[in-house]
Amino acid sequence: MQKLESKPVVEKIREQVLQKSDAFQKKYHRKPHLAVILVGDDPASHVYVRNKHVACEKVGFQSTNHQMPAITQEQELISHIQKLNQDSAVDAILIQLPLPSHINKERVLAHLDPHKDPDCLTEANLGKFFSGNSVVKPCTPWGVMRILEHYNISVTGKDVVVIGRSLIVGKPMACLLSDANATVTLCHSKTKNLAEKTNQADLVVVAAGKPRFFGKEYFNAKSVVIDVGIHGSGSGQGLCGDVKYDEVYPQVLAITPVPGGVGPMTISTLLENTMALAEARAQKLENKK
Ligand code: NAD
């Protein structure tokens, strides 16, 4: 049993982004700039946003905080996004999710300039991603691919099960794995005989959003398990994933832990995406001169 920790991958990506950011600053005499919008006072979101600012600082990015009160109206948020879309000093705009329930996420995202969308959330960027033609890739699934690459886990010709079909994790995950030549089965809450399918797979990516739901009956001694789930525990047990880690770890070939697995990768790939957007925009502006 191997523990697929993300720390070495995070450090490698940070070093790569830092080098690119230094080169960018030398060439364009400014830092890549990520604007982070946070609406409301969800404590977990505040922690995520703080972590993102710290990560930006470590790779030499400028990051600005756009805190808006919980009572912010949808149109006010859209106006703020439009202002940042127009701001030539901003390369990427991150809208921290979830938004308060009175704000419609889809309507808001429709106003985000896809050239400044580091999470690959806009329809335009998702369309480009699924066509194999995007500057940015969905952060969490791309982070999973970087872990597999780091640990030399090839998926070519392998049978892979992805549990969960959301637009931010499951679907793009299936697409990336298929592009990497895996044979992918995309499962969800209505899938029958799930344990039978996962037991036949070489690799299982679990993104169901169900804390400590998947036990050893879902896996075998040759399974590689990627646990995307992340749940804060109100019961004092700390963070946990979708997989019963303690029970599954001794029984499988390899598994990502929670914490310390997929979670930290999402910030690393966000930095990569922000860097890519800054480079693409600066290049475009230079070509116009
Ligand atoms: P979601 O709720 O949008 O989707 C969950 C999916 O799982 C659905 O497609 C549903 O059909 C499926 N599902 C639910 N119960 C199931 C079951 N018992 N068997 C099979 N399929 C089942 O969730 P999401 O946004 O895709 O997130 C999934 C998990 O990943 C959550 O725990 C979330 O917190 C975590 N997540 C982590 C990161 C990260 O940075 N590591 C980023 C995004 C999401």
Secondary structure elements and their pairing?
Elements: E1 2-3, H1 7-28, E2 33-39, H2 43-58, E3 62-68, H3 74-86, E4 92-95, H4 105-109, H5 123-130, H6 139-150, E5 159-163, H7 170-179, E6 183-187, H8 194-200, E7 203-206, E8 224-227, H9 245-248, E9 254-255, H10 262-288
Parallel strand pairs: 1-9, 2-3, 2-4, 5-6, 5-7, 7-8, 8-9
The structure holds nicotinamide-adenine-dinucleotide.
Outline:
The chain has 289 residues and is an alpha/beta fold. It contains ten helices and nine strands.
Give an overview of the whole structure:
This protein has 289 residues and is α/β, with parallel strands linked by helices. It is 43% helix and 14% strand. It has helices spanning 7-28, 43-58, 74-86, 105-109, 123-130, 139-150, 170-179, 194-200, 245-248, 262-288; strands at residues 2-3, 33-39, 62-68, 92-95, 159-163, 183-187, 203-206, 224-227, 254-255. The protein has a six-stranded parallel beta sheet with strand order 1-9-8-7-5-6, sandwiched between helices. Strands 3-2-4 form a three-stranded parallel beta sheet, sandwiched between helices. Helix 7 links the parallel strand 5 (159-163) and strand 6. It is globular and about 55 Å long. The N and C termini lie far apart (56 Å). The mean pLDDT is 96. Bound molecules: nicotinamide-adenine-dinucleotide (NAD). Nicotinamide-adenine-dinucleotide is lined by residues 140, 163-166, 168-170, 187-189, 191, 194, 207-210, 228-231, 242, 262-263, 266.
